[in-house]
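Appendix B. Chain record.
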Amino acid sequence: MIAEAYDKIQKNKGAHTQGTDSETADAFGRIRLNRISEEIANGTFKWGAIKRKLIPKKGKKKSRPLGIANFDDRVVQELIRIVLNIIYEPLFQEKEYNHGFRPKRRTRSAITKIERESQGMTTAIEGDIKNAYDNVNHKILMNFLKKKIYDRKFLRIIRKGLEQDIIFNKQKLSGMLGVPQGGIASPILFNVYMHKFDQMVEEKVGELLKKINKEEGRVPMEKASTKKYKKLKSRIDSNRARIKRLIKKHQGLNEGNIDEYRELVLEKRQAKKKRLQVPFINRKKILLTFSYTRYADDWIILTNASEKHCEKIKKLLTDILKTKFKLELSNEKTKITNLRKEHARFLGFTLKNTLSKVQTRIRKDGTKFKARTTLGPKIGIDHERVMKRLEEIQVIKDRNAKKLKPRHVGIYCSLKDWEIVTKFTQIIRGLFNYYYYSLTGKSDLHKYYYLYRYSCLKTLAHRLRISIAKITKKYGNELIMKYFIYTKDQNGKKIEKERSVKFPTYKKLMNEIGFRVEKEKREQFVKLEKIKEGVNKKFLLKKIEFLDVFKSSYLLEDPFMEKDIRVNLRTGLKIFGHCDLCGVMHTKKNPIVMHHVEHIKKGQIQGFKKIMRSLNSKMLPVCEECHRKIHRGEYDQKSLKDFESINRN
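Structure tokens predicted for this chain:
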């Protein structure tokens, strides 16, 4: 399992970042792995101190503390994460409240849940917990863990990990509160801590609304029809019955009953027309319900309760967080929003109710009829948040200007032409991929396409000192740019390869992403139908919902079973093999370790990195003696063909 944990984190970007000691993923081998294993088994494993750095928050003057652990500690953190994930994921799947830092869950699944549970909801409570990660109470967290885990040794490792010392500005601080941001096990530990809060929201808010329903005499939707609607419905049903009796009595239509028939039909049509203008439900009588969704420390409650009732819910949750979890709600970010008048904001999206409309529909036999339909919530882009980001990266000058004008991005002007196009293409694709799936109106994306495209053109024009017209004339509408990359074969011969990059048109980009999204939705629909197959609906206790697709797409595995331990055999288990340079096997005096480099494609590649680039690998199992030679530069002038062991493989 430690080998599996190492294999999962060795390719992380931070694998070469040093903690408070000098050890990184480089030179990790069987000796270090066995030492960690023995120390955990004997209960003698000691956590090192965490190096703290302050990183600026996007669009804010505040900074976020980032904890950097030693590499061996990160391996143990990943081990804890694997075990806790297996234990707690089935509990998280029961209600699907939280969608942050969980397998197969993301922003998309959270917005899908909100979209499907927001029908009839009129008010939103947007919640944000103040400094949530830094204020996690260790004693409360350990009590939650003890309810599911009985292994004292494992719990002791977690507790000691939470109490790690922190080194900040060369001063030692005690870690008595919080889970370190940047820690591998921190997200799952925070989810365990907040899972109890999720359960209490369902229980306590449910009890509060149940009490209000009883006091105000509220009834289910089907019994909450307005008097006018009931009267018109009764008149329509009465006319329909009279028409049937008239036709039956005279055995069809004839000159004697045709006038009476026309009067009844006209009266029925007028009643139907009036019914479309009359509200169906008396909202003051309908049962109050709610929907709760959380993503890490951000959460939202949608309800059909009034703003006055929502204030009670907010106060209730504030008290629960303060007394039971020692956490505090952020007053700035926690808002109560009337969805009929304003937008609620969550994870970069906006949510607002749409007014019901009278639409013309077609029956199976081809006849048309009019019906009042509620189109459901409108999900849009949080333009304020996106515009703020555009202003930060200098795509626009002033987000509050009446007419937005794109500008060149100064930091990209030093790049090559094709690198500029690649940068902007990656950004626009990322934006479209994030928003396209969930948006009600896809055309909202066109504004951002225009801004990014012309910012790209202006950046190229500024770099080349020519006009935008000349740029499009030279490279075409899609800005197709060709460039060459150079590599070497095993004999050291230089190889030239042609590559191209382009900025897709709006139509092509929408079609490409739209096709992929529709394909994904079809696959999810097929999965949903398969879940429903063979289920007797009469004995079904809970309705099968769309979110069951997310549950079924993640299968739990036992990390203690050898068949379920998945390690990348190409690299992960090579520390148990031979040296790829000289071919010697592992010995105590000369053990096999993994030689890691940060990158093999960025910037100038010199020395031994050229060999690793030829192998297209950032990791190489080597003996300790060869590893020392690599770092001393003794292999810098050699080529791939000089190493017989690699050539044999």
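Further analysis of this model is presented in Appendix C.
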